[in-house]
């Protein structure tokens, strides 16, 4: 529901030749559809949320070809962009990931390491972020062009990459446009170790501090990350908000899960990125133990769906580890388009929530898992931020520590529940999870910003 | 017209490390799938022992004798120095510019093999599937032995995640 002020503005007739009175948000996201990266869904939902609430939305992102080169694409996700959103795509580091050897310089052939090192040094001179710093100038120039053609009322940048904050900073300093910093991760907090990244006096720490000083709001995905930033910037803490991730109802047809016909053999599933910090080996060893201990699992399969690592090239270590457990009916069935997740979940009888140990890591999949209503074996350290998200979930079977033994115990308990669960129980769990929908997290902030901009903040 | 593609894998890694279980479709796969008249794929490798059905030919250089330059460099201790330098970042940077860099060694091996040079000359397109193969593919392009050359690490999935059709239905 749009705020009253904004509603009044959007109700104004837009006569031919008259400027559109609705506020204009410039949303900056490197990873926007058709990017296949995990952060893309938050970007997609946020921009769509602003459009639905009556804002004029321009998204500034990278060209489609960038994602084909670097991290893979999910073309179907592009069809989910709100039709009123204007998408401005600018090239990102065309040399990186270039496969055509006719375009490689002699220096790159002579020593790819030297060539890459020199490029990184040049990029760092522009912005203190390895691999993305070179995007600073094109982003600032594009943002200024957009603003000059159609004045921007608010900039929202979503990171990482942190260079996405540049347009907000640039338009604020040049034209006084307010901006929001949306941290999907954290710039100077290592969310896995809990330690500060770099020295407090480093160039990038100072830059973030300056940006936070002037941001109208900063968003964080969970309370522990927000609190860490509030401790470090106490004078700005009242502008820091939690905008948690959530599941996207548009991509998750829960009726498919509820009405599915359960086969005789259980299919245990994991859907998400499979990468280094998750306790994959403990999970696989726990799975092996669980199969030895429970007759329910004797003919069950464990199916992994998702990307192997964060890059286009699959992570060979994760692949080798999965392969090692092939004889235990462990199957890797490849990545899944977001538009296919309902079909994939409908094939699973219970889910393994495998996430890394950190009080700062929630993981995006916890919301989607809960939304399915399926039993969840939570295979992670209880310290994880995901623990509080699932607190109260009706069919949760959580391990009390990270070990093959504890994981086996949780898998057996969840499997035995899954073998007899009813559709009624699935529905009840789905209902419980309703508050975890992404819009429930985003709407309060969009509404608040509508009020602020409607009241002329930053004008 | 049937297009001829030569895939080059220059590293001496265990074959299992060169497998991609899934991911984006490779340039090689796209070329195969977009070809109306079919493709002929030849492989030049440095010891890949995985069976790959559908290959027109496989030139395996694992047993090829090192070039005279490489024998001399080895006697002078360059290979030992290379191993030592490979243990730290600046050393690896120096290695990448030196004469025993894997790409340079592999190119000299290819140049010394008549079968490999004939495979390059017969191809329309060269695809380097790993970094050590890049110099060879680039040299083939510069010498106009091939008309197109690409670096495509996903092509290491050759024979694992996709087959090689010889003609389209």
UniProtKB/TrEMBL annotation, chain B:
Domain of life: Bacteria
Protein name, UniProt field: Uncharacterized protein
């Amino acid at each position: 529901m749009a705020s009253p002020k904004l509603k009044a503005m959007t109700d104004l007739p837009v006569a031919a030749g008259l400027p559109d009175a609705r506020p204009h948000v410039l949303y900056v996201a490197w990873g926007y559809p058709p990017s296949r990266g995990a952060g893309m869904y938050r970007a997609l939902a946020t921009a769509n949320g602003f459009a639905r609430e009556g804002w004029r939305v321009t998204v500034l992102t990278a060209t489609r070809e960038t994602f084909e080169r670097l991290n893979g694409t999910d073309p179907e996700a592009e069809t989910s962009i709100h039709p009123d959103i204007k998408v401005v795509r600018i090239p990102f580091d065309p040399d990186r990931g270039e496969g055509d050897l006719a375009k490689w310089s002699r220096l790159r052939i002579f020593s790819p390491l030297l060539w890459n090192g020199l490029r990184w040094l040049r990029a760092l001179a522009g912005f203190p972020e390895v691999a993305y710093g070179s995007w600073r100038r094109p982003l600032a120039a594009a943002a200024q062009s957009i603003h000059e053609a159609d004045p921007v009322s608010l900039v929202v940048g979503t990171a990482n990459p942190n260079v996405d904050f540049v347009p907000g900073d640039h338009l604020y300093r040049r034209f006084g446009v307010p901006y929001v910093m949306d941290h999907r991760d954290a710039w100077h907090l290592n969310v896995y170790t809990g330690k500060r990244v770099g020295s407090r006096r480093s160039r990038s720490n100072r830059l973030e501090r300056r940006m936070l000083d002037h941001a109208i709001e900063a968003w964080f995905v969970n309370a522990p990350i927000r609190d860490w930033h509030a401790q470090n910037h106490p004078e700005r803490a009242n502008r820091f908000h939690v905008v948690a991730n959530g599941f996207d109802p548009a991509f998750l047809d829960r009726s498919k899960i509820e009405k599915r016909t359960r086969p005789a053999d259980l299919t245990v599933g994991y859907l998400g990125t499979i990468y280094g910090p998750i306790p994959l080996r403990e999970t696989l060893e726990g799975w092996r133990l669980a199969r030895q201990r429970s007759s329910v699992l004797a003919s069950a399969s464990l199916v992994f769906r998702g990307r192997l690592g964060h890059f286009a090239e699959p992570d060979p270590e994760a692949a080798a580890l999965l392969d090692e457990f092939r004889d235990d009916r462990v199957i890797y069935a490849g990545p899944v388009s977001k538009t296919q997740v309902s079909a994939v979940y409908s094939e699973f009888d219970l889910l393994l929530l495998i996430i890394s140990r950190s009080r700062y890591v929630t993981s995006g999949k916890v919301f989607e898992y809960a939304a399915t209503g399926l039993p969840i074996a939570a295979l992670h350290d209880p310290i994880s931020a995901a623990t509080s998200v699932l607190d109260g979930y009706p069919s949760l079977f959580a391990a009390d520590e990270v070990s093959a033994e504890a994981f086996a115990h949780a898998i057996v308990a969840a499997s035995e529940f899954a073998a007899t669960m009813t559709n009624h129980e699935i529905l009840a769990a789905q209902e419980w999870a309703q508050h975890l929908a992404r819009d429930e997290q985003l709407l309060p902030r969009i509404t608040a910003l509508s009020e602020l901009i409607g009241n002329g903040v930053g004008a | 017209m049937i297009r001829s593609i030569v895939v080059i894998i220059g590293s001496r890694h265990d074959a299992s490390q060169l497998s991609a279980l899934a991911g984006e479709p490779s340039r090689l796969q796209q070329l195969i799938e977009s070809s109306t008249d079919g493709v002929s794929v030849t492989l030049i490798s440095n010891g890949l022992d995985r069976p790959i059905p559908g290959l027109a030919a496989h030139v395996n250089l694992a047993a090829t004798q090192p070039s005279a330059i490489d024998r001399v460099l080895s006697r002078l201790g360059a290979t030992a120095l290379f191993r030592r330098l490979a243990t730290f970042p600046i050393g690896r940077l120096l290695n990448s510019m030196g004469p025993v860099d894997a790409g340079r060694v592999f190119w000299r091996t290819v140049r010394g093999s008549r079968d490999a040079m004939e495979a390059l000359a017969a191809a329309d397109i060269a695809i380097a599937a790993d970094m050590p193969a890049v110099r060879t593919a680039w040299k083939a392009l510069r010498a106009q032995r091939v008309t197109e050359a690409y670096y495509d690490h996903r092509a290491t999935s050759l024979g694992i995640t996709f087959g090689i059709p010889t003609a389209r239905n």
